[in-house]
Automatic annotation (TrEMBL):
<dbReference type="InterPro" id="IPR001645">
    <property type="entry name" value="Folylpolyglutamate_synth"/>
</dbReference>
<dbReference type="GO" id="GO:0005737">
    <property type="term" value="C:cytoplasm"/>
</dbReference>
<dbReference type="InterPro" id="IPR013221">
    <property type="entry name" value="Mur_ligase_cen"/>
</dbReference>
<keyword id="KW-0460">Magnesium</keyword>
<dbReference type="GO" id="GO:0046872">
    <property type="term" value="F:metal ion binding"/>
</dbReference>
<comment type="similarity">
    <text>Belongs to the folylpolyglutamate synthase family.</text>
</comment>
<keyword id="KW-0479">Metal-binding</keyword>
<keyword id="KW-0547">Nucleotide-binding</keyword>
<dbReference type="Pfam" id="PF02875">
    <property type="entry name" value="Mur_ligase_C"/>
</dbReference>
<feature type="domain" description="Mur ligase central">
    <location>
        <begin position="8"/>
        <end position="151"/>
    </location>
</feature>
<protein>
    <recommendedName>
        <fullName>tetrahydrofolate synthase</fullName>
        <ecNumber>6.3.2.17</ecNumber>
    </recommendedName>
</protein>
<dbReference type="GO" id="GO:0004326">
    <property type="term" value="F:tetrahydrofolylpolyglutamate synthase activity"/>
</dbReference>
<dbReference type="GO" id="GO:0008841">
    <property type="term" value="F:dihydrofolate synthase activity"/>
</dbReference>
<dbReference type="Pfam" id="PF08245">
    <property type="entry name" value="Mur_ligase_M"/>
</dbReference>
<dbReference type="GO" id="GO:0005524">
    <property type="term" value="F:ATP binding"/>
</dbReference>
<dbReference type="InterPro" id="IPR036615">
    <property type="entry name" value="Mur_ligase_C_dom_sf"/>
</dbReference>
<keyword id="KW-0067">ATP-binding</keyword>
Amino acid sequence: ECVTILAFAIFADEPIDVGVIEVGLGGITDATNVGDGQVAVVTPISLDHTDLLGDTVEDIALEKAGIIKPGSFLVSAIQPRDAAQVLLERAREVGAEFRFEGVEFGVESRTVAVGGQVVSLTGLAGRYGDLLVPLHGEHQAENAAVAVAAVEAFLGGGERRLETELIRNGLRAVTSPGRLEVVRTAPSIIVDAAHNPAGARAAAKGISEAFDFSRLVLVIGILEDKDAAGILAELHEELGGILEDVCLTQSTSPRSVPAADLLQAALAAGFAEENINIAPGLDDALEWAVMKAEENNDLAGGILVTGSITVVGEARTLLGK
């Protein structure tokens, strides 16, 4: 809350032309919600922070819907049906315009390319073709569609077509540290801050699509309020064919689950006990993973570091990013 207040004070002093404010947790009760947003953007809703936000997507959607202000404009990613209904009802209740991905806008086409993907988007006011998005995964193409629609909503109420070259230049310059980010080669080390089952599923699908690994070593650390079993199950289901060796670790965060306590979740997900290593120190975990990835001089081996933002952040630091 204090940092949010300081941010708003800085924005007022500048002053800024446009503020893009990301909610910290939930929506309606978050400190950022003091802002009177002209456009409310809701990304895909899934189960997360259930101890605070509720046990169903409807409960969580109700929290998120609190950022939709009277007379504003809702731009929503594709949502579970129950979540979409909650958002729609809130928008109608406060007299907000609303547009949903998959109905009024979305991804028209996408092709995997070196360093990312080339996409064509249908916006609220026009089509934007052959855009390079230097990020991996279908979810990042959908994020790009939501971002473009949000700009269209903000600048022209969804009725003003943007200059394609401006969109092209903007997306070409996009970075997303810690999201399917390659932080080292030989062996390739990819970090992704997925910390719930939906995020793990998206990351795993992105790896399957964009990389050609013969085998993958997993380094994973998870925070105590997260669905560890669900995260590990999603990774095993999507990457089980190449994902054998697993190193359970932890970050320095006091909220980290002790590495050894993740063992049962890993076994339940389908990982073989003989392929699981426990290394509470992240530096030791990375060293072990590199050794495993380079076994038998396998040049197509890689490493995925995931499970929490704190683990990925510390891994990036250790690897010089």
